[in-house]
Amino acid sequence: MTNSPHDTDRRTRALALLERLEAGAPARVTANLDAFDVDAAELILGFSFADVVGRDGIDIRTREMLTVAMLGAKGTAPGQLDFHIRAAMNCGVSRQEIVEIIYQIAVYAGVPAAMNAIASARKAFEALETSS
Amino acid sequence: MTNSPHDTDRRTRALALLERLEAGAPARVTANLDAFDVDAAELILGFSFADVVGRDGIDIRTREMLTVAMLGAKGTAPGQLDFHIRAAMNCGVSRQEIVEIIYQIAVYAGVPAAMNAIASARKAFEALETSS
Amino acid sequence: MTNSPHDTDRRTRALALLERLEAGAPARVTANLDAFDVDAAELILGFSFADVVGRDGIDIRTREMLTVAMLGAKGTAPGQLDFHIRAAMNCGVSRQEIVEIIYQIAVYAGVPAAMNAIASARKAFEALETSS
Amino acid sequence: MTNSPHDTDRRTRALALLERLEAGAPARVTANLDAFDVDAAELILGFSFADVVGRDGIDIRTREMLTVAMLGAKGTAPGQLDFHIRAAMNCGVSRQEIVEIIYQIAVYAGVPAAMNAIASARKAFEALETSS
Amino acid sequence: MTNSPHDTDRRTRALALLERLEAGAPARVTANLDAFDVDAAELILGFSFADVVGRDGIDIRTREMLTVAMLGAKGTAPGQLDFHIRAAMNCGVSRQEIVEIIYQIAVYAGVPAAMNAIASARKAFEALETSS
Amino acid sequence: MTNSPHDTDRRTRALALLERLEAGAPARVTANLDAFDVDAAELILGFSFADVVGRDGIDIRTREMLTVAMLGAKGTAPGQLDFHIRAAMNCGVSRQEIVEIIYQIAVYAGVPAAMNAIASARKAFEALETSS
């Protein structure tokens, strides 16, 4: 069994979705993944974005809300939480909706998880205000 | 400082929302909490439902999707995941949307978390088909 | 390097503390661990109880409160949470103190963790009332 | 974008690996996943087994040791831990190696995680002795 | 249903407790929370400190020990662990008691969690020695 | 019961293994632990390395693979993950094997855990290339 199926179309679809989450993200993320391993971009982005997040059935705006909620509740990937709060807002999620998700994180994962998410959100709010 | 603020209105609002999540839930949940401690229902349901989940800003249908995502991603409260999948569907979330949330859990929290959520979802699907 | 240091004194001290946590526990726990591996009781109970929990510096009553808080906050070992709520009460922790710890779990680990701990506590309260 | 790529080969390869992990598992697992959603088997088993665990670079015996370590350390999927301890042993991991992995779980994830894994291991040891 | 109950007394009681945990903390924490959302201070600090941690039944010194244990065991909020080790010591918890709690974290959550807590504790020890 | 068993041999064996994981690590790690508490090095390193990781039954190379998998899957100790990826490679684990472990982390703990591990791995790859 070879380790490199190289399904070009899957990678292309994943990167198109990633570009929609944040302009310029595909170049940065693939540079990171390609420097790690030749199969990483397809395996990881392909599964995440082409196979799952790009599916029909839930719109991307709601999907990003779900991702923010999950990353905030788990609290183990602060860099990705920063990214997905910005991505959610790039998909049309409002600042007030981010606030509401974080209050809900306090209920389902505790106040420290919410405090971490507040730090991420404040950075994202500032980054998006500066860029607009 | 007394431990029993007894804000009757807060309890009432929390139970009204809980009834909307699943008909009959308030009696069952308050029986459990009241047997534990006299302040439990107000403190826990009051914070969860009156203070946070009952807020404006995100509709209850989307909020239950977020809760399913968080409980599935954390994987530490299977009984509550069972409940909130049923609650989400009682609020209008479709079976296909539950499926999509669980695929997204696989991406952000791993396949074992998704497999646990599939077991919860299958029980919920069956319970709701039987009752309808 | 041999895998069997067999520090008899360490095992004896660990079991003496375990007996104080719940009368009869040493026989049950060592039966389980000995059936798993010959070194398990010394390695696991020795580290837990002889090396750490049996140390001076914090009394056993407070230590069991800390253990209940940690197990409740993590939410991944329900059987051990059941045991340590009973053990805490056997060391003099009151029912009301268990209640307070669980409310504090709600703050620092979220409401679902607290709900799981309430289920454990209600079983422990019942077991201890029946036995007294 | 359609939700059903139906890459038959990917499903076939995944099920072949699953059969190697435990004889008869493919029928049971696909029955569960197919009852949940038409795409579940390919998405979840395809990613897990065809895309990742079936890759070259680490042999299946070592991979199953890694899976047991991860599931034991996380402690949130007891049913899957049961399965993968059996699967590891079906791939040639010895009973003593399972014991060693669980001691290492105690170091890196704490004693309660190890105690849960001991319960899983004892069930697996019994199941495999009975079947042999 | 309005989102701004503005229970002034609840906020006041929460901040009084926070001031006791660390002199000057209320100004810093409310500045952070107010910049995030107008309701954050009351919802989050009100639940944490006025509703729960400020309750009778367990003294604040023991409560801070419980908080350090929970945050250390979870390992997902290093900034809050830093704060609560200082807060515990401000409430009379001794350096040796912090050491004992961290050894107990090693048992119930593993050595890496204890190593993270040691890093937090060393910073807190230094900060408090410098300030005294 | 005294808190200072001072089993010199146990400390010596632990440090010998630590030196094998990374040349120079014993001095750095014991400086950190000794500054925290006089018993820390023996309790924590003794349990980790003399009692468990130094045992027969699984070779150190495979044990370090297991540790990388567990730390990556839990995602709560990034500094220790950095260290153990370097340690694994110092024990003969290849760069490609680290890559494979991280893909397996994506399956069993989710993509964000894998992304964090990729950041750790890239730092380790660079550090080891520079030093060689």
UniProtKB/TrEMBL annotation, chains A, B, C, D, E, F:
Carboxymuconolactone decarboxylase-like domain: residues covered: 40-122
Xref: InterPro entries: 4CMD/NDH-1_regulator (IPR052512), AhpD-like (IPR029032), CMD-like (IPR003779)
Any single Pfam family the record assigns to this protein: CMD
A GO term, aspect molecular function: peroxiredoxin activity
Top-level taxonomic group: Bacteria
Gene3D superfamilies hit by this protein: AhpD-like
Annotated protein name in UniProt: 4-carboxymuconolactone decarboxylase
